[in-house]
Amino acid sequence: MFALFISGSTLNYFGLNYSGNESVPGWKIHPYVLLAFSAMAILGLPFGKARSRISERNFCVPFVCSAAIILILIIRSLGSGRQSLGFAVDTLVSVFWIAAVVPYVNDKGAKTIWKMGLTFVVIECVLAIIEVVGRMNFIPIDTWYGGYFRATALHGHPLNNALVLLSVAVPIQLSANRNISFFIFVLVIGALSAFGARGALLVYLLFNTLLFFRYGLRSAGRLSIVLIGIPIAIIVILSMLFSGALGDRIANVGAYDDSSGVRFQSVKMLGNVDFGSVITGIDPDRVARIMEKSDVSVIENFIVAYIFMFGLISTSILFLSIFVSIKRLSRSIEGQSEKLLLVVFFVFFATALTNNSLVTKTPALFLCLIFGWAAGRVRDGIARQKVSFGDSKFAPPECHKI
């Protein structure tokens, strides 16, 4: 609830300066992080008759990974140049803590989380569309977008909104029935257009194209529906995008502009650094000089930013830790739903490459893990009910298969 509806931008808006250099004591860490840590501590320590889960692999693997990442953060913050890595607690470390907790949530809890995610998707998308139609921001932020209006919805920065939205919408869509899935698709297209998130929009459209073809390949009748429906959908979507009805910027969805150029320039910056520095990381002052030389104000690629901050070795350990934790979590989900979790994270990282949200305080990865897991558990519950009902007319509606 805190991660979904009470964003860092909301805390900033109410004067808590969550993302700034000064703040009310205790508010530099978001409440969802504190709750995740508390839940992990309760599971890991024996209280009364409750036994510790520390010896179980579902708990132990993400716990050990979090300890390794915390150690890396401490070493990097104490080294030369003193990296500012406060964002990593909310953005990265909390992910391992919640990964240690969610395998012990029951099916009822998973359904509640799933419904909460669907509610968030509807509210987030409706707010974004209202903002762009009314040319107003519910949570104003101090960022200039040139002549383009971009919605800020619940999570402030448009690109952060786009990443957070897809983190929740994709797993919900994959585990919903066809009607709800289509409803989510329409809302998300509108919201991403309102955010002006061209990279996220491209990833989402490609993902759904593959999903529709996968659906069509299941039978000749469905394939014919897809082959007829996709051209119509393309015409409708392109007409909407290029009309500027949901944002002037998205009408330039295919244009190569300064925003597009800085993403390529961010990657090219690695060529200006010696191999040894790439391996070990670079101090902030030197990074600032490299950015100034390359005429880049923001590194719009989180992997490049991580290599500069942590070094290639530590970045590889970080990605390996995330992968191991996801694999461990996927084993707590039965049947085909394990594939769902991997697909969700693939879409997430493809979207994350289009902006630098993961170099800031964001719940995106945290939410991706929670709702990827919850969607898998909900799918498993539907599958089990179908087995119980057999071919009965009372069987629950079918959700998408990966």
UniProtKB/TrEMBL annotation:
<protein>
    <recommendedName>
        <fullName>O-antigen ligase-like membrane protein</fullName>
    </recommendedName>
</protein>
<feature type="transmembrane region" description="Helical">
    <location>
        <begin position="59"/>
        <end position="79"/>
    </location>
</feature>
<feature type="transmembrane region" description="Helical">
    <location>
        <begin position="225"/>
        <end position="246"/>
    </location>
</feature>
<feature type="transmembrane region" description="Helical">
    <location>
        <begin position="117"/>
        <end position="138"/>
    </location>
</feature>
<feature type="transmembrane region" description="Helical">
    <location>
        <begin position="29"/>
        <end position="47"/>
    </location>
</feature>
<feature type="transmembrane region" description="Helical">
    <location>
        <begin position="180"/>
        <end position="213"/>
    </location>
</feature>
<keyword id="KW-0812">Transmembrane</keyword>
<dbReference type="InterPro" id="IPR048041">
    <property type="entry name" value="VpsF-like"/>
</dbReference>
<feature type="transmembrane region" description="Helical">
    <location>
        <begin position="85"/>
        <end position="105"/>
    </location>
</feature>
<keyword id="KW-1133">Transmembrane helix</keyword>
<keyword id="KW-0472">Membrane</keyword>
<feature type="transmembrane region" description="Helical">
    <location>
        <begin position="338"/>
        <end position="354"/>
    </location>
</feature>
<feature type="transmembrane region" description="Helical">
    <location>
        <begin position="303"/>
        <end position="326"/>
    </location>
</feature>
